[in-house]
Amino acid sequence: MNTHDLKIFEAVTTHGSFTKAAEAMFTVQSNVTARIKSLEEEFNVNLFKRTSRSVELTQAGEIFIQFCKKHNHLTEILKQELSNSNKLSGSLKIGCIETTMALKVPGVINEFTDKYPEVELSFKADNSINLINDIINYKLDAAFVAAPVTSPELNVHLVKEEQLVIAMAEGHPNLPEYLANGKVKIVVFDIGCSYRPKLESWLNIKGVFNYQCTVLNTLEGIINFVEAGIGITILPQDLVNQIYYNRKLKTQSIDGEQGRLTTVIAYRNDVPQSNAMKVFMDLF
């Protein structure tokens, strides 16, 4: 077994195909087949269930892929740490929920890249559930997500406690009147968004259980729809004040648990942090 074999195995798992894995690894299918066969013979297990259309992991393969991802991740960290450069270098893959991407990421990028230009930063926006899964599967080094984080593989560091508000169009009817007319419309991200259940819980407390839901996948799209009067949404007060202060919106604060959201940065607790990751974490 060698590191390249593990990367080939991970490529087959990711693409579900020996042919696509070969393309991704810039090699030929026969080589991929041979390397997988070598791994299976070395450990005396079948790693894949092969069909005419695809390949799927066996139970042994499921165990092996977790080891494989961890090994490949640690190898990349080791390469960075053993670099001969006296400057901080390497790469960091960071995930963000959409609102954090708008509020915090531009400042983080400016501060970090000015001090450490040799480190490559990449960011991914998604909902908290998907981002946490990406950390667990070694696709991200860390992510800004909404608390609570219950995965035992992860540690968290507090970033900010946010005050949430109901946002609506400038000319929108007042909320008590709007909620009472029985024709409530909300504009939200899809299932998995941390804000959506807060809004739905708040509506339930107000006695509203039936409402029309418009789902969008971008923050800018939600703002545009709300400003156009299509419905109401829920957002951090700071986001409205700092980013969308010049839009035709008005807000109403929310009391209680529905009006608070804790943002944390989550990361794996079972692998050492690279020097680049330690410095990034120090920003918070």
Protein architecture, described:
This protein has 3 domains: 3-81, Orthogonal Bundle (Arc Repressor Mutant, subunit A), CATH 1.10.10.10; 90-161 and 262-282, Periplasmic binding protein-like II (D-Maltodextrin-Binding Protein, domain 2); 162-260, D-Maltodextrin-Binding Protein, domain 2 (3-Layer(aba) Sandwich). The chain is 43% helix and 24% strand. It has 12 helices and 11 strands. α9 (196-205) links the parallel β7 (185-188) and β8 (212-215). α1 packs across α2 (18-24), α1 packs across α3 and α2 packs across α3. The longest helix is centred in the N-terminal third of the chain and has 23 residues, at 59-81. The relative contact order is 0.14. The mean pLDDT is 89.
List the helices and strands and how they pair.
Blueprint: H1 3-15, H2 18-24, H3 29-43, E1 48-50, E2 55-57, H4 59-81, E3 90-96, H5 98-103, H6 105-115, E4 119-125, H7 128-136, E5 142-146, E6 154-169, H8 175-180, E7 185-188, H9 196-205, E8 212-215, H10 219-227, E9 233-236, H11 237-242, E10 249-253, E11 260-268, H12 275-282
Parallel strand pairs: 3-4, 3-5, 7-8
Antiparallel strand pairs: 1-2, 5-11, 6-9, 6-10, 6-11
Helix pairs in contact: 1-2, 1-3, 1-4, 2-3
CATH superfamily of the largest domain: Periplasmic binding protein-like II
- Total beta strand runs: 11
Show unreliable segments.
none
As a whole number of angstroms, the C-alpha radius of gyration is: 23 Å
Query: What's the average pLDDT?
Result: 89
Strand content: 15-25%
Main sheet record: 7 strands, mixed
Number of helices: 12
Helix content: 40-55%
Architecture of the largest domain in CATH? 3-Layer(aba) Sandwich
Overall body shape = globular
Distance between the termini: 40 Å
- By secondary-structure content and strand pairing, the structural class works out as alpha/beta
CATH class of the largest domain: Alpha Beta
> What's the domain count?
3
CATH topology heading of the largest domain: D-Maltodextrin-Binding Protein, domain 2
User: How do the helices and strands follow one another from N- to C-terminus?
Assistant: HHHEEHEHHEHEEHEHEHEHEEH
